[in-house]
Each structure stands twice: as C-alpha cells, then as structure tokens.
Specification:
Elements (H helix, E strand, L loop, with lengths): L11 E5 H5 L11 H7 L8 H33 L8 E7 L5 H12 L8 E5 L7 H7 L13 H12 L5 E7 L4 E10 L4 E5 L25 E6 L2 H15 L19 H24 L8 E5 L5 E7 L1
Parallel strand pairs: 2-6, 2-7, 3-6, 7-8
Antiparallel strand pairs: 1-9, 4-5, 8-9
C-alpha cells in the first residue's frame, strides 16, 4: 500500500491526532462507556478518548456542513417560492474489509443524532444489496463476493436516488452475516431522516472505475460528504485474521451459520484459511477496487496499531 504521506499532500490538509483533537472546541461527549461497548466491532479496542479526539471534531465538522447545506436549500426554495421535499444529508463511509467501517458508522450515527438540528440519523450498509447467494452461484461470483460485480448496483442506486428525491419511505434489503445471504422478505425502511449514513466497500466508486463506458449514476453521485477509513494492508490482513479467529466461538458457532464448518478449526488451521481468503479475495479487491477510490473522499481517517487513529486528512 502506498504510504499516505506520499500521495495526499497536494489534495489534503493533514492533521496529527493532537491537532485534530483541538478542533473539537466545546462539543460535549454524549456517549458513555456502556454506549461505546454496544458500538464497538469485533476485535476493536476503541475508547472514549478515541471518540473525544477523533469523532467529536468530525461530528462538529459534519454538523457545520449539514447546516450549510440546509441554509442553501432554504435560500433556493424561498427564491422559487416552493415547499421543498425533505431530502437527507448523505454521508458515505468506505474502506477495506476489517478496517472498522461499521464501528465508525455506528459512532457517527450516535453522535450526530444528539445535535438538535438533525436528530433523526439512519444507517444502512450496502451488504443488503449483494446479489443473493443463488444468483452469485449462478453467475460464478462466489469467489468475488464484495467485488463491484457482486452487487445489485441498479437496486442500490435506485434506493439512494429515491432517498435523495425525498420519498416518504424507501426500503433496503437486510443481509445476514450468519447465513451469508439476504434475509428473504425482510427490509429496512428509511423514512426521511435528517441524515443518512451509508457504509460499504465500494461507495466511492464512479464511472471511471467501470470496465465499460457507462452513463449510469453511481452511489457517489448522491453523497454529500464521503469518508474513507484507511490502514496499511499488513494491518488489515492481521485484523481480518484476528476477527476470523474470534468468529469461531461467535457467529461461526451457530448451526445456521454458513461458516459453521469453520467453528472447530484449530488456531493454525483458522489462521491458514483466513490468510488464504485474504490473499485470494479481500486483498485483491482492496488493491483493484477499493483503495483506488480513496482520494475521492472528503476526509480520510488513517489508522495505525490497535485500530487507533494516527492521522486525519481533510480535502482542501
């Protein structure tokens, strides 16, 4: 992975952790240790100091951006003499498998919902828009799950387009990490939130990433603010293997789990299999499809050891 400091200086303002923490100003900490325990992902050691130093300044920045967008909308609609539909501010969070996107999304949802200007904050992941297992098998894509072609991109774009248009209620499929598939006939309903956070591997992709010339819209076309959670690949692989080992006594242990056959593996066996999965699927997907979109993000959260943020890069 190319070192961050070699490629971002022309595009981003770099902030070391201490510098970024100062931008919190007077934003109060609204999460308790118990709250944070519910938001942490597997194998993450995020603390309240991480929330204070990294996420509270980010919450303040996003609040300012949402307010500015709301004011622009009010001015335009006053000029046009119309009552606007309620359109949410959309935040996307991208990054590799095992980098901690879901934890970042959950923490931001919790913090942003405490601002009185936008109390209704919804969160979805793009996992629900993965093609069902039967369809992936039919297309020969089981070894490319998570790659762009494994998603129902039309369904995902139709969903985000309807949200942005201000439709009263829009549904998204629900995904189960136990069955490794969509949950039949179950949906998450999004009903005009103030903010929608959408988290996924490929949410920063544009038409430039398509193998063929296409004029169709992408999720990134509807996003107001984008975040990329970054780390060196050797750390990402290490975190993926550690998470896989923990899953043996967690999700994998359930008899209904698609990966139940992994639950009885020894440490050495599990490490070997997880390493192979990374090297053949997750690593190539990161290199080919995910990391190349990093420089499109408005903000990059750079992680070091133990999932702790080392640096924040804010687009100029």
């Amino acid at each position: 992975m190319t070192p961050t400091n070699q490629i971002h200086n022309a595009l981003y303002l770099p902030f070391q952790r201490e510098q970024w923490a100062e931008l919190r100003e007077s934003v109060p900490l609204t999460l308790s240790e118990n709250d944070l325990a519910d938001l942490r992902g597997i194998n993450e050691k995020i603390s309240l100091s991480e929330v204070t130093d990294i996420y509270l300044p980010l919450s303040r920045l996003l609040n300012l951006n949402v307010g500015a967008k709301q004011q622009r909308g009010l001015a335009l609609n006053e000029f046009l003499g119309r009552v606007p539909p309620k359109r949410p501010y959309i935040i996307s969070i991208a990054g590799s498998v095992a980098v901690g996107k879901s934890t970042t999304a959950r923490i931001l949802q919790a913090l942003l919902s405490h601002w009185p200007e936008h109390p209704k904050v919804d969160l979805i992941t793009t996992d629900g828009f993965l093609h069902p297992l039967a369809e992936l098998k039919r297309r020969g894509l089981m070894q490319r799950k998570g790659f762009p072609e494994s998603y129902d991109m039309k369904g995902l774009v139709d969903f985000i387009s309807a949200i942005k248009a201000g439709e009263a209620a829009v549904s998204a499929p629900i995904y189960s990490h136990i069955t490794y598939d969509r949950v039949p006939d179950q949906y998450q309903w999004i009903r005009q939130p103030d903010i929608l956070i959408i988290e996924g591997l490929n949410v920063l992709q544009t038409g430039q990433d398509s193998a063929v010339d296409t004029k169709r819209p992408f999720v990134s076309d509807f996003v107001d603010f984008s975040i990329y959670v970054d780390a060196e690949e050797e750390l990402l692989k290490k975190w993926y293997i550690e998470r896989f080992l923990q899953f043996r006594t967690g999700a994998f242990s359930e008899e209904s789990s698609y990966f139940h056959h992994y639950s009885q593996l020894t440490d050495n066996e599990a490490t070997s299999i997880a390493s192979k999965i990374w090297d053949t699927i997750n690593g190539p997907n990161l290199t080919l499809n995910i990391q190349p979109t990093r420089e499109r993000a408005h903000l990059i959260l750079q992680k070091g050891q133990d999932h702790l943020m080392d640096q924040v890069l804010l687009r100029k």
